[in-house]
Amino acid sequence: MRFIHAADLHLDSPLSGLRERAGERAEQIAGAGRRAFDNLVDFAIAEQVNFIVIAGDVFDGDWSDYSSGLFFIRGLSRLNHANIRVILIRGNHDAANQMSRRMSLPANVRELSSRAPETVVLDALNVAVHGQSFPARAVTENLALSYPAPRAGMFNIGVLHTSADGRPGHDAYAPCDIRDLRLKGYDYWALGHIHTREVLSTDPYIVFPGNLQGRHINEPGAKGFSLVTVDAGRVTNVDHISVDVVRWATVTVDVSGAGALDDICPRVGHAIDDALETADGRTLAIRLILKGACPAHTVLAGDPDQLAAECASLALQSRGDVWIERVVVETDPVQEADTGAMADVLQLIGRVRTEATDAEMIRVNLERGLDKVPLALRNEVGLTSLSPEQYSRVLADAEAMILHRLTAGAPRS
């Protein structure tokens, strides 16, 4: 017997500020979740798996229209025609009270109740599937404690959307201890909510499959579902199957000592080609981080548009399909002896940065400006809060931009 354990499909998840930067790539990235689900359905039919379990967050919240639901039902109907059952629960994003629109599901699909845990028995396979949907977005109690006892003589699966014993970056929903799950006596726990694949236990198997498709740079690497093989009532294999169509990666490039942008381009090109080795032929969305002390710091931080264009050009020249999601400059200037007017400018900038009154005035005005920027956009640029390190980097970038404009002879705005 083989079944698919998937979770966190987040169909039609919003781009969260990516649309403006993605340009012509926007629709490709926005549609990646749908294509990943199609890949799951294709795999299930081709491999003739026995059934599919989805551990919550099929959707990313209430639908703006019915297209999300219709797309999902189209995939479920294909599975129905192939005689593949689907058992699913709702998670925090698609909890019962989060969805104002509902549609009837095909006959092969069973959505477990949000009122209390319930059990679905697949008699032909001698399988019992236990689970409960989220009634509301914020479920803080340990739902696993009220799950029913295992059915004797059957292969028992628990389906739970949970933060388990806590994971950074995820809300503590339906928290539980691994001991709670082990003591329940089930043969396999199909978990959801955590977007990174993780096997918490192998006796019994307690698994987060991760999400089906990475949605942004903080969800890097291969994404997909778990294919579970059961023989004689015991799990023999839990294999990760990648179905993502856009893969995310952060690539750090050491540009120490580079004197100009032309010196940096070959290093960036090699780094992109190396990163492509991990993409498995998929579209690769890269965030480039440039580090190191170099004379080129002024042009890198001072002319971000030219830098972004050069990196995009290198991506087009690579051996695969690459999109540069962002270029982050974390280089440091190389101090050089300056004379004349430029020395006076540097002295003035240094005084503004270090003088307590001036520095505080700049910080206050910057924070007032940031307060008007949507939180999603601030998250994208890494300015959720203006920490001392971030503030120092903002001032350093501003200094580089001023010096670049002066040395390049460009008009000041």
TrEMBL record:
What is the protein's name according to its record?
Answer: DNA repair exonuclease
Is Membrane one of the keywords UniProt gives this record?
no
- Provide the GO MF annotations for this entry: exonuclease activity
Q: Which residue range or ranges hold the Calcineurin-like phosphoesterase domain?
A: 1-196
**Entry's InterPro entries?**
Calcineurin-like_PHP, DNA_Repair-Maintenance_Comp, Metallo-depent_PP-like, Mre11_N, Pesterase_YhaO
Q: Does the keyword Cell membrane apply?
A: no
Alphabetical UniProt keywords:
Exonuclease, Hydrolase, Nuclease
What Gene3D superfamilies does the database record attribute to this sequence?
Answer: 3.60.21.10
